[in-house]
From TrEMBL:
<dbReference type="GO" id="GO:0005524">
    <property type="term" value="F:ATP binding"/>
</dbReference>
<feature type="domain" description="ATP-grasp">
    <location>
        <begin position="128"/>
        <end position="350"/>
    </location>
</feature>
<dbReference type="GO" id="GO:0006189">
    <property type="term" value="P:'de novo' IMP biosynthetic process"/>
</dbReference>
<keyword id="KW-0456">Lyase</keyword>
<protein>
    <recommendedName>
        <fullName>phosphoribosylaminoimidazole carboxylase</fullName>
        <ecNumber>4.1.1.21</ecNumber>
    </recommendedName>
</protein>
<keyword id="KW-0934">Plastid</keyword>
<keyword id="KW-0067">ATP-binding</keyword>
<keyword id="KW-0547">Nucleotide-binding</keyword>
<dbReference type="GO" id="GO:0004638">
    <property type="term" value="F:phosphoribosylaminoimidazole carboxylase activity"/>
</dbReference>
<comment type="similarity">
    <text>In the C-terminal section; belongs to the AIR carboxylase family. Class I subfamily.</text>
</comment>
<keyword id="KW-0658">Purine biosynthesis</keyword>
<keyword id="KW-0210">Decarboxylase</keyword>
<comment type="pathway">
    <text>Purine metabolism; IMP biosynthesis via de novo pathway; 5-amino-1-(5-phospho-D-ribosyl)imidazole-4-carboxylate from 5-amino-1-(5-phospho-D-ribosyl)imidazole (carboxylase route): step 1/1.</text>
</comment>
<dbReference type="GO" id="GO:0009507">
    <property type="term" value="C:chloroplast"/>
</dbReference>
<keyword id="KW-0150">Chloroplast</keyword>
<dbReference type="GO" id="GO:0046872">
    <property type="term" value="F:metal ion binding"/>
</dbReference>
Length: 440
């Protein structure tokens, strides 16, 4: 094997085991969910060692990672310990302890993307402020601190009005819509409930359930802090005709490489289907790529980024949000592009040349396997669908091996590639049409 072509930056430490792969360094990933798992799969092709930090002993990445440290990616001491064992630190989730990342960077730890990027993106309001300062088109937005502020936003932006949690949002958990002024309070209360659940979850993972119950008993007030106290903002409702996304790879030398624009279709705020390439006019694709390029250029550090966009009826493209990591809208790239988003991320953080993001098949469609039921019945339904998928030409089944089946949980995905958009859509239809016919 050839020696590493990684830059000096990635060789900051000498206390890793020497290995003879494409790169000699160990890549540390904060988080070991499905994205971490697919990073490990791409890494194994090049004998790159990926180590993950995740609190779950049997997290999706654990069985294939080079190493798995069991611990919280949101805990300072644990992240410090983990970083000592890796040459470059990256993320599969943005909800990590960014203050620790900043400290680590000051001590010379190589974080990619940079902690400054994670800090901006973790707070969706700060993210919006950042991108608007960089001249990127966005839906109108406004920070709100109380009900009066929410009413002012309603008067200004009209209804429906989108409320968003600044932090810890994913799969639409953190969003609430007020259809009119009367619904303002319930939208805000919805947020309050959500943020409190997140807060409780965090406490449970840090302190354990017994301590939590004790704390609850002595400080009930802690839990009555409202949604406003924890941070909310509002966005003008965007009546989009399509949602688009662009995966962008950014090298350590700041080279930028964009994947073809895709269309994402959400079901109850969760990404459900991705169509690649997006069926939109060439000018719109160019515009979307331009915005994605500009957005990622405004951030610091290497890696793969996902840029979520809205396409409006009058042909405007607006940025919804950016993820500083691999993304669900890029899963199709494993089968349909010369370099998958996961390989691209590894290449980027290691300082290797970026690969070719273009599609090697004319069309691809990705279908998320979302939990349809809890426990065994849910597994049964998913396995029925997988059984049908395996009989369809051009399909690849990915199962994340999550220990628990829950409703709406991302359990796996199926990608279908083919010679035209029409063909892959027809294949997907035939896979889904039979749904239920086999159930007794
Ligand atoms: P994830 O990180 O999983 O993509 P999230 O919790 O960060 O999701 P958003 O991306 O902000 O949530 O929103 C989820 C979905 O809600 C979007 O994909 C879109 O369908 C819808 N949505 C978000 N903002 C608006 C808006 N301003 N107007 C209309 N619909 C919106
Ligand atoms: Mg998000
Ligand atoms: Mg989103």
């Amino acid at each position: 094997c050839h020696a590493s072509t990684a830059t000096n930056d990635t060789s900051l430490r000498k206390d890793y085991l020497p290995v003879h792969g494409v790169s000699e360094v160990i890549v540390g990933v904060l988080g070991g969910g499905q994205l971490g798992r697919m990073l490990c799969q791409a890494a194994s092709e090049m004998a790159i060692k990926v180590m993950v930090l995740d609190p779950l002993v049997n997290c999706p990445a654990s069985s294939i990672a080079y190493d798995h440290m069991v611990g919280s990616f949101d805990d300072s001491e644990t992240v410090h310990e983990f970083a000592k064992r890796c040459a470059v630190l990256t993320v599969e989730i943005e909800h990590v302890d960014v203050a620790t990342m900043e400290k680590l960077e000051q001590q010379g730890v190589d974080c990619q993307p940079k902690a400054s990027t994670i800090r901006i993106i973790q707070d969706k309001y700060l993210q919006k402020v950042h991108f608007s300062r960089h001249g990127i088109p966005l839906p109108d937005f406004m920070k709100i601190d109380d009900l009066e502020g929410a009413k002012r936003a309603g008067d200004l932006f009209g209804y429906p009005l989108m409320f968003k949690s600044r932090r810890l949002a994913y799969d639409g958990c953190g969003n609430a819509v007020a259809k009119n002024e009367e619904e303002l309070t319930s939208a805000v209360n919805g947020r309050m409930f959500y943020t409190e659940v997140q807060f409780l979850k965090k406490l449970v993972s840090h302190l354990g359930l017994t301590t939590l119950v004790f704390l609850y008993a002595i400080d009930e007030q802690q839990f009555t802090l409202g949604g406003f106290a924890r941070g909310l903002y509002v966005e003008k409702w965007t009546p989009f005709v399509k949602e688009l996304a662009v995966i962008v790879g950014r090298g350590r030398d700041n080279s930028i490489s964009c994947y073809p624009v895709v269309e994402t279709i959400h079901k109850e705020n969760i990404c459900h289907v991705v169509k690649a390439p997006a069926h939109v006019p060439w000018k719109i694709r160019e515009h979307a790529i331009d915005i994605a390029h500009k957005a990622v250029s405004s951030l610091e550090g290497a890696g793969v980024f996902a840029v979520e966009l809205f396409l409006t009826k009058d042909g405007q493209v607006l940025l919804n949000e950016v993820a500083p990591r691999t993304h669900n809208s890029g899963h199709h790239t494993i089968e349909s592009c010369y370099t998958s988003q996961f390989e691209q991320h590894l290449r980027a953080v290691l300082g290797l040349p970026l690969g070719d993001p273009s599609m090697k098949t004319p069309a691809a469609i990705m279908y998320n396997l979302l939990g349809e039921d809890e426990g065994e019945p849910g597994f049964h339904l998913a396995h029925q669908l997988i059984g049908r998928a395996l009989n369809i030409q051009g399909t690849a089944v990915h199962w994340y091996d999550k220990p628990e089946m829950r409703k709406q949980r991302k359990m796996g995905h199926i990608t279908i590639v083919g010679s035209s958009v029409g063909i892959v859509e027809a294949q997907l239809k035939s896979m889904l049409k039979e749904e239920g016919s086999e159930t007794q």
